[in-house]
Amino acid sequence: FTVLFMYFTSISTAQTADCLHLREQCINAADGCDSVWKIVEDVCNISVLGNRCKAEDTIGCNRIIQVLADEYPEFKNCVCTTDDFCSITTLLGKHCSIDKDNISTETKLQWSLSALSKQAYTANRTCLDVNKECVEDEVCNKQLSLYLKVCSVNKKCNMEECQAAIRFFYQNMPFEVAQMMTFCDCIQPDESCHRAKELLHGKPCAVTAVPPPSCLNVIHMCEENELCRKKYTTFRSKCWRHVTKKCYDDGACLETLIKGDMPCSANADCKAAYISNWGTMLRVECTCQNLPPAEQSLCKLFHHILHSKSCFS
């Protein structure tokens, strides 16, 4: 037994060293991993040494660890599904292990206590009403508070960290609630409503770059990022199947399309794919100004795909 214990302990120690090395790589990465990690630290209440986890919100802690492992698969071997010789316990703590089935069940149970989640989705909700309902709902407000803390305009904005918080925020709620948030608008020129809309939609921190990039650059940057590329591929296939089927990645073919020849499916799968884009480069406000004439039509097409409300109006 002693030999067996020493064997597993040595494996665990080696894995821990690898996971600590991955954490250092993540913190120093320029691919957004550091932003997700900062939210892991915040939600799981990790100490400065990184080897204590005192999460009060264990469901939220497990959920953000799941987001980390899904978005950066190199961490999958560092994620604990049991308490036996588990390397992640020295990295995050025993109570921050992950069990996707349990997390899904616990999250559903948590939201089942929420009055907000029992409302059927209705179109044309104002962002002020939706924001008030979320604030007044204990489950929603808890998640909204974390998101606003990260994306607060009162501190220096970190776009990638704010985007990671938005991804976590929208992935962690029922589809009906996510729809209410993403598709809310302000019909009247109401300053309070527009302020609520900006809060719910990550403005200005997650979507406003200075100077604004061209829509062609946004697509190129997205395709260079594995997480964004997957979401963009799903979004095109679910919402703009006609474009995907007819042209795929053929720029010359795409340029020949006109907006009237671009029906959007706008079904539930399309809406889910659209919501999944929130917190990625695809939601960054882009422009087609100052581009050479030869690139204008393709740029305008991408702007239409990414930012046109016609798909869901």
Task: Map the helices and strands.
Blueprint: H1 2-27, H2 33-44, H3 58-71, H4 88-91, H5 100-112, H6 127-136, H7 138-151, H8 159-171, H9 175-182, H10 191-200, H11 215-223, H12 226-239, H13 241-247, H14 251-256, H15 268-276, H16 293-307
Helix pairs in contact: 2-3, 2-8, 3-5, 6-10, 7-8, 12-13, 12-15
Mind explaining what this structure looks like?
This protein has 313 residues and is an all-alpha fold. It has three domains: 14-92, no CATH class; 100-207, no CATH class; 215-307, no CATH class. The chain is built from 16 helices and no strands. It has helices at 2-27, 33-44, 58-71, 88-91, 100-112, 127-136, 138-151, 159-171, 175-182, 191-200, 215-223, 226-239, 241-247, 251-256, 268-276, 293-307. Helix 12 runs antiparallel to helix 15 (268-276). The relative contact order is 0.09.
Report the uncertain regions: 1-13, 83-89
Question: What value does the Rg take, in angstroms?
Answer: 21 Å
**How many domain regions?**
3
Give the integer mean of the pLDDT values: 76
Give the number of DSSP strands.
0
Task: Tell me the distance between the termini.
Answer: 66 Å
Structural class: mainly alpha
Number of helices, where a helix is a run of at least 4 consecutive DSSP H or I residues: 16
Please indicate the percent range of residues in DSSP E strands (runs of 2 or more): under 5%
Proportion in helices: 55-70%
Give the topology string: H per helix, E per strand.
HHHHHHHHHHHHHHHH
Give the overall shape, derived from the CA principal axes: globular
Biggest sheet overview: none
Family: Belongs to the GDNFR family.
Protein name: GFRAL protein
Keywords: Cell membrane, Glycoprotein, Membrane, Receptor, Signal
InterPro entries: GDNF/GAS1, GDNF_alpha, GDNF_rcpt
